[in-house]
Amino acid sequence: MWNRKDLVGLKDLSQDQIMEILELAKAMREKIDNKEARKDSLKKFSVLTLFYENSTRTKTSFTMAAEFLGADVNDLGISTSSVKKGESLIDTAKNLDQMGADIMIMRHGMTGAPHLIAKNCRGSVVNAGDGVNEHPTQALLDMFTIHEHKGKFQGLKIVIIGDIKHSRVARSNVFGLTKMGANVVLAGPSTMITSNMKALGADVTSDLNAAVKDADVIIGLRIQLERQKAGMFPDIREYSQLFGINKKLLSLAKDDVIVMHPGPVNRGVEMSTDIIDGDNSLILDQVKNGVAVRMAVIKLLMEGRKNNGITN
Ligand code: CP
């Protein structure tokens, strides 16, 4: 039985809790294609999205997930809100909490912002990405996609390539995947990987060929082009030549390797177009699975609130 008020990261979730989300997401995935089955028990529940950073996939899929479950959904448009008058994060959240949101889904550039709100609000909080810390539902949808295709996590070689240092997606995936018994390898330019990632239980390398050899899963990460200005890589073309995922690199992996990317993709930079659109790519499956996983997360948190008698 689910008993957590918030979902702020995968670091603190148990194996059982991760599997509970993934199993419920499987049932939710069937509802996406069946309009009649979509409406569920969440009528009269209220979901609020607060995105201090831009998003296409995460915000839209959370909104659709909540709507598919029958909940009311509202968005605080940050650019037209009193955040622009200087209202603090904590005051903003406390005011919205007072209006009766059952779940607040938050993306913020500051590490720990959702944790702070979770501690100070009665509403449940879901971290939709905080700084360079975690993006738990992205990792959960990645894990769902991997499990759907490989049927297991134990013993899989999963390689994550790119700007590891600034990637909340990589961190959440390392927490989740290593917990489930996968072997995670992080690969990228040495300016984009910190050695402390090793302490999280992943292997770390700048040797891309060795990383990809016999891989079951390859996850490419978006190169945050703003990092180029900070001198982390000299030239996009050079990055693409040295660390881009292309057919030649893919030939080193297992024949049935699956290729994933959280999006948005810089086509031809971190991944060539023939790989993005190729037979091994599950990038669009990930997007659909994201709706199912977010339905599962919303449903479990709402059930947890009911089970624990928490109201807003
Ligand atoms: N993967 C992801 O977080 O995409 P968005 O930034 O579009 O939400």
CA-based gyration radius: 19 Å
Q: Which topology of the largest domain does CATH recognise?
A: Rossmann fold
Q: How does the helix and strand content classify structurally?
A: alpha/beta
Identify the CATH homologous superfamily of the largest domain.
Answer: Aspartate/ornithine carbamoyltransferase
The total of beta strands comes to: 9
Strand content: 5-15%
**Helix-residue proportion:** 40-55%
- What is the count of DSSP helices, taking H or I runs of 4+ residues? 13
Give structural notes:
Helices cover 41% and strands 14% of the residues. By secondary structure, it is α/β, with parallel strands linked by helices. The chain folds into two domains: 15-135 and 287-307, Rossmann fold (3-Layer(aba) Sandwich); 136-285, Rossmann fold (3-Layer(aba) Sandwich), CATH 3.40.50.1370. Strands 7-6-5-8-9 form a five-stranded parallel sheet. Strands 2-1-3-4 form a four-stranded parallel sheet, with helices on both faces. β5 (157-161), α7 and β6 form a beta-alpha-beta unit. Bound molecules: phosphoric acid mono(formamide)ester. The site of phosphoric acid mono(formamide)ester (CP) has 9 residues, from α3.
Write the layout of secondary structure elements.
Blueprint: H1 15-32, H2 35-38, E1 46-51, H3 57-68, E2 72-76, H4 89-98, E3 103-108, H5 113-120, E4 124-130, H6 136-150, E5 157-161, H7 168-179, E6 183-187, E7 203-205, H8 208-212, E8 217-220, H9 226-229, H10 236-243, H11 247-250, E9 258-260, H12 273-276, H13 283-307
Parallel strand pairs: 1-2, 1-3, 3-4, 5-6, 5-8, 6-7, 8-9
Helix pairs in contact: 1-6, 1-13, 3-13, 4-5, 6-7, 6-13
Bound molecules: phosphoric acid mono(formamide)ester.
Phosphoric acid mono(formamide)ester binds at residues 55-58, 129, 138, 262-264.
